[in-house]
């Protein structure tokens, strides 16, 4: 990779890297579900970020020199660690013990819309146009359709679980907007490393309090899930994403929001026999079309 991220332009290499991000992030939903067959959710998530933090400690010095940026302030680390890594991933892991991985990924796909809405409110120049508001309506229709069909099919307890899941993209959106507003000159490598440590501690405490008597089976799949989710699924993906975010147009990176949930749906169907019916397809298309309308390239508005 070039030392100057500004010299990296939208070209086939960037497309390949974004494709790699889609492939890894699209597969993480399935791998989480596979790991949860043997590990309780908060324990699994805590181990993931503890290992990711340990790896980041080893690579942070080299990558920070290439990236630049100042050390993140404690308040920003706490926001990213508690919201982005602790609460958000804790909710996702917990929900995947109750709902299929593909359905969870599609419901989580409203994240870009939440970021756009908060950006409209709190970030200068991030105003939404009429088409974006129509995207919110379409996305809401898609989520509602999934709730009354796919979610409801799993029984009365599934609806509250899906509602709790929506907390995950909401708090992640708050974290992303806070980092964008207050962390412009902050090293993303250090912010992620320190945030992972905070998230791992929060998840570990939650695991001790709620999973003390839950059985843990150290199967090969359990070990693989932690290693895969920690290194390719966290260290590699977050490093690539934030590096590309500094060097490629944001609307190009929005491709990830469309491809990842679709890939997660297919992988869940192929490897875990998760249902994909016509209602699933229609609801997912509404959500993804809504995301497209919200995050598509738009002119910045001067304020």
Describe this structure in words.
- The chain has 303 residues and is mainly alpha-helical.
- It has 13 helices and no strands.
- α3 packs across α9.
- It is globular, with a radius of gyration of 19 Å.
Question: What is the straight-line distance between the termini?
Answer: 35 Å
The largest β sheet comes out as: none
Number of helices: 13
Radius of gyration over all CA atoms, rounded: 19 Å
Instruction: Output the structural class.
Output: mainly alpha
Could you say which overall geometry the principal axes of the C-alpha atoms support? globular
Report the mean per-residue pLDDT as an integer.
87
Tell how many strands the DSSP assignment holds: 0
Low-confidence stretches: 1-10, 299-303
The helicity comes to over 70%
Features:
mainly alpha, disordered N terminus, 303 residues, 13 helices, 0% strand, 76% helix, globular
Task: Describe the structure concisely for a colleague.
This protein is mainly α and about 300 residues long.
Helix and strand arrangement:
Elements: H1 12-35, H2 41-67, H3 74-95, H4 101-108, H5 111-122, H6 130-151, H7 158-165, H8 167-182, H9 188-210, H10 220-247, H11 250-253, H12 255-272, H13 278-295
């Amino acid at each position: 990779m070039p030392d100057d991220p500004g010299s990296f332009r939208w070209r086939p290499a960037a497309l390949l890297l974004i494709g790699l991000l889609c492939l890894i992030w699209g597969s993480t939903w399935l791998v989480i579900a596979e790991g949860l067959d043997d590990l309780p959710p908060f324990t699994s998530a805590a181990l993931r970020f503890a290992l990711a933090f340990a790896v980041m400690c080893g690579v942070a010095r080299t990558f920070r020199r290439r990236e630049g940026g100042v050390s993140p302030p404690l308040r920003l680390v706490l926001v990213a660690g508690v919201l982005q890594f602790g609460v958000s991933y804790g909710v996702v892991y917990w929900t995947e013990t109750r709902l299929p991985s593909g359905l969870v990924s599609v419901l989580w796909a409203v994240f870009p819309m939440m970021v756009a809405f908060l950006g409209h409110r709190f970030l200068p120049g991030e105003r939404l146009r009429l088409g974006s508001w129509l995207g919110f309506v379409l996305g809401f229709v898609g989520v509602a359709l999934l709730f009354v069909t796919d979610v409801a099919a799993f029984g009365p307890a599934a609806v509250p679980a899906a509602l709790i899941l929506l907390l995950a993209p909401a708090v992640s959106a708050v974290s992303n907007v806070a980092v964008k507003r207050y962390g412009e000159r902050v090293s993303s490598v250090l912010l992620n490393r320190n945030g992972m440590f905070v998230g791992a501690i929060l998840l570990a405490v939650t695991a001790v309090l709620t999973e003390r008597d839950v059985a843990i089976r150290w199967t090969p799949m359990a070990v693989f899930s932690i290693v895969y989710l920690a290194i390719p699924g966290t260290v590699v993906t977050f490093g690539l994403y934030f590096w590309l975010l500094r060097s490629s147009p944001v609307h190009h990176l929005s491709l990830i929001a469309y491809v990842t949930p679709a890939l997660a749906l297919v992988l869940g169907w192929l490897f875990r026999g998760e249902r994909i019916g016509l209602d699933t397809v229609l609801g997912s298309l509404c959500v993804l079309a809504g995301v497209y309308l919200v995050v598509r390239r738009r002119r910045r508005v001067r304020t």
